[in-house]
Amino acid sequence: DEVVFSGIQPSGIPHIGNYLGLFLPFLELQSSLPRSTPLYLSIVGLHAITLPRDPNILRQERMDMLAALLACGVDPERTCLFYQEDIPEHAELAWILNTLTPVGRLQRMTTWKSQIATRTSSSPDQITDLDLKLGLLAYPTLQSADIMLYKSTIVPVGEDQTQHLELARDTAEAFNRAYGDIFPLPQTRIVPSKRILSLRDPSAKMSKSAPLAASRIVLTDPPEAIRKAVKTAVTDSEPSIKFDPEGRPGVSNLLLIWSSLDPSGQTPEQLAEQAQKDGWGMAKLKDAVTDVVVERFGNIRAEYERIRQEKGWLSQIAGQGRAKAGEVAKKTMEEVRRAVGIDKL
Ligand code: AQP
């Protein structure tokens, strides 16, 4: 039987990449899957602390992420919405999985390699940088634990997470080989996943923590901010409008955003063709993109601001999720502990 799990870090207000890469696919599963299919969506604080965070800001951002997910349409009656750090079994299973995960495999993760590239000049096998912490290297193992704890089979995530998902699959397999068949092998639901690029640098993905705010559009941006971010988005010097993600990533990124939110359901290629036929320039394309984003984010923003004030309700939702997820997590860990031989004597 299918079980859906996904997670998001409470590391800032979600941007349109998170929205198109994770939220929308998740919401689609929420509305299309039969009610008997369990859905889990976790705000993963233990992942967020793999980079230094101010505790007070983190506390606020955890709550804000819950409000943002609810504002986007996650239904807490249908989806088990919870804080990862409320369920100690995540860290416990991660530890056990650490004993099965080859260090070399973790060192090959692109996320780790990009951290090394930005922070140290030493070669990957001779890391002397004391700022690089073990938690950051082991992050994908914790992610495997998140997925496996609920015996998840479908993991809707953005395209950037594919490598981590492959690791989760191999880790589940390694566990089953070592201790018996406990875990199903998770599938990545990356279709029709989208990789939204930074508006400032189309060679990088859009990211919550990139220093330049103008590189992203976040759910709470007022219309003027959205207009400005799109207007100043880096494209290229060719005047034509064409969907060519390889050759023309900047324009293609805008077309992808437009097509993902446009009610007509047209593909980026079709929208580009039409724009080209109508003799549009880049300014017109940017206006069209701005309009669909403003339209979609306007309601979400109002809802977010309202929900954010409802602290009592938010903690009630978190409590509900904690109870539901906790029950399943406890059961899985009992099985795991028995299989490994570390159950109560
Ligand atoms: N640019 C993106 N395009 C499509 N999907 C994306 N996701 C992230 N960026 C893009 C998807 O959003 C989900 C939640 O991501 P996360 O917060 O857990 O981690 P992340 O991938 O590291 O996201 P950010 O925005 O880049 O955050 P920071 O800067 O804090 O690391 C995932 O499913 C991811 O694929």
Automatic annotation (TrEMBL):
Family: Belongs to the class-I aminoacyl-tRNA synthetase family.
Top-level taxon in the UniProt lineage: Eukaryota
Compartments where found: Mitochondrion
Source organism: Kockovaella imperatae
Major subcellular location class: mitochondrion
A GO molecular-function descriptor: ATP binding
GO terms under cellular component: mitochondrial matrix
Catalytic reactions on record: tRNA(Trp) + L-tryptophan + ATP = L-tryptophyl-tRNA(Trp) + AMP + diphosphate + H(+)
Pfam families tied to this protein: tRNA-synt_1b
Alphabetized InterPro entries for the sequence: aa-tRNA-synth_I_CS (IPR001412), aa-tRNA-synth_Ic (IPR002305), Rossmann-like_a/b/a_fold (IPR014729), Trp-tRNA-ligase (IPR002306), Trp-tRNA-ligase_bac-type (IPR024109), Trp-tRNA_synthetase (IPR050203)
Keyword Protein biosynthesis: yes
EC code: 6.1.1.2
Cross-referenced HAMAP family: Trp_tRNA_synth_B (MF_00140_B)
Enzyme class, broadest EC rank: ligase
Protein name per Swiss-Prot or TrEMBL: tryptophan--tRNA ligase
SUPFAM superfamilies, per database record: Nucleotidylyl transferase
Membrane-spanning ranges: none
Keywords, ordered alphabetically: Aminoacyl-tRNA synthetase, ATP-binding, Ligase, Nucleotide-binding, Protein biosynthesis
BP term (GO), one: mitochondrial tryptophanyl-tRNA aminoacylation
